[in-house]
Write a structure and sequence with these properties.
mainly alpha, 3-stranded antiparallel β-sheet, 14 helices, 5 strands, about 55% helix, about 5% strand
Amino acid sequence: MKIIFIFFIIYHIFAVLAIANDNLTNNYIDNLSKIIEQRYYIPYDFSKKILSSLNIDNKTLEKIVAPKEALIWGKYKDIFVTEKRINDAKAFLKEHLDILRKIENEFKVDKEIIVALVAIESNFGKYKPVHNVGDALFTLAKEYPPRSNFFTKELIHYIILRRLDKTYDNNNIKGSYAGAIGLPQFMPSSILSYAVDYDNDCKIDLLNNWPDTFASIANYLKSNGWEFNELIATKVRPEHVKTLENFVNQKLSLDIKTLSYPSPKKNTASIKKFSYDNNTYELWITYKNFDVIKTYNRSDNYALSATLIVEALKNANKE
């Protein structure tokens, strides 16, 4: 009888906790739906219906605390800057060269950086995301305090996007663990702010449409200050490492022209350190375009990976 009683008590405790959690979730959904209605004039019932259908994705929480961007450079590079990926990027650029040239001329954004971001973000469309976008955003907004504000805004933009564009009004759209969507892996706010209907078919399709995807990436980069046909980063030569490592993670005040490195337009650059292990590292001088890439993904590793792919593509054009 004692064992039965103990099990009854435990069951009762879990039942009470479940009810309490449900009440908290319901209050969260109710409050957020009201905010969306008051600020964005989207009907309360529309938001509540979508939010009530979303679930906590524990895999999302596992991945966000240990992202690939947190890897040291050597390991990150081995994933994203492989010989195969560079060869695939060359073939992809050749396949879509006409439309990419057209977009490059219109937006004044180098076609190679567009291809590089597609390479990293969706592996040229081969990447098959597994996370429900709504679940991921709901989970991170509600259950991940370090970036709750950011993901709450993205969750709100997700609701707005579903209201405004039927292409994305689907509970089953898959994306990254952070809720990024489609071939360019745009967050909902980026779709609303930068996405382009390039082929004029009256819908912005970043799930399947390459022209829309290329133009949207170009528009994003241009809007965030991309400088056409300018450097992204330059590797520091071994003889200058000791001199320049004193400037790591700060704006470079030294005149790098005296060391025969390209000088940026406004005479400002930064030094970044990238490690292969505890003893082996390299330094890179980074320019404005490096920082623009970081508005897409704030990781230095990500930006340098894109830089290396761009360099490989531009060097191939010279051959």
